[in-house]
Amino acid sequence: MELKISTLAERPDMYERVVGMAASWPEFVIQDPVGDSHYGRIAAELPQYVLFAEDERGEVVAQAHGVPFALHAEGRGEPPARGWDEVLVWAFADLERGVRADTVSAIAIAVAPHVQGHGLSARMLSAMRDNARAQGFTEVVAPVRPSAKHLEPRTPIEEYAHRVRPDGLPHDPWLRVHARAGAAIDSVAPASMTVSGSLEQWRRWTGLPFDTAGDIEVPGALVPVRCEPERGYAVYVEPNVWMRHPL
Length: 247
What we know:
By secondary structure, this protein is of the alpha+beta class.
């Protein structure tokens, strides 16, 4: 597939089409309050870190969001255990305070549903790396959401993340894409994203009854959702895998 890849800084006229591109995230994933508060700011405030791909007809078929942040600032130094949520908070705190960034974190790569399975995610990851390198950075980190972990929600993330194939590459397809691009696993982010809500909200997000105490397996969830009917809420704490891309 022929693609034209640009940044929103280069093509600000494409803003509405990029942010309006259809994606396929599970409904509950987009209920994370940190993401709700910060994700939309990336395109508006950091357009040079938003890449998008157009096909031959000019349709936006993929996009990649990243954020610059100061990984090596005092009190940091390592990718955070609270993964995706915390790196978003760090990035926008650094932006507001004028702190010089030293690293780019991938935040999301999305491919339109009708063109999935054609290697576009790998191409957008490569474009993100190239874009970071062109801006003078020497490393990209990524709180990776393993794409097949939802098939094994009760497998510990440490065990799953380090499972490899006979060729030495990661078992998980999305971790494998990162590894092929030159990344290595750094650590697990055990609480990368947290989504809490009332039982009624979880019923609306998932179509499940949420009337039984304990761990509920939810389609698309990487780990079970903890349901507390007596207290009227359920909580999902998603683990991710930090991967580091030297440039």
